[in-house]
Amino acid sequence: MKIFAHRGYSAKYPENTLAAFEAAAQLPIHGVELDVHLTKDRKLVVIHDESIKRTSNGKGYVKDLTLEQLREYDFGSWFSEEFAGEKIPTLHEVLNVFKETHHRINIELKTDVFIYPMLEELVLKEVASFQYEDRVILSSFDHEAVGKIARLAPDIENAPIFSTMVLNVADYQKTIPAKALHVSLTSAVRSPVLNAIQRGSVVRVWTVNKVEKLDVLKEIGVDGIFTDEPEKMMEYMLSWDE
To answer: Which residues are designated catalytic?
Structure first.
């Protein structure tokens, strides 16, 4: 079962910062997950929320601020004074962290609250600039965006994210069409997901931070997990081989 560091190594570093991604890049895990929004001046930045209030000393929406304005704020002190001065990273900066590593990179398109025109095209352009087409997964709660990726870049892996489960999810997957399904931990053991796995769907589960959940996920055939605790998960999975 593959491990993706959720928003970088977010249990020990401020989420979605270069510090969190550089730490994840040092781990022998499968990949990382990150979130992308678009600034007022149409720059791709990595942050989870639409607002900067929770993870910085500023306020306002990413869409209403330029990259230069966003760079004025501290995105590390909210987590720990050890990380004071961390800046919001661009997608380019984060992708560059993994230039010499093996990690796959799950880019979540955060278009489910605000519509960012041409976000998909801009992300695909950045991915192409690194020649990462075979290393990325483009996912979103906005299933329209996932379908758009399927049309624009049919060879790139795409995945709808589900907070709740839909019936006949394997058939729904075909209508997008999508190459994988990303489901919540509570949905993972429900019959639509089990049926999808049995029919050959690649299923990844978010967000798994307790090792006691791993045995069941392994048993049902989950392909991967997203976790804030990549080292803890990795150490537990190693015990399976002992």
So the answer is: 6, 48
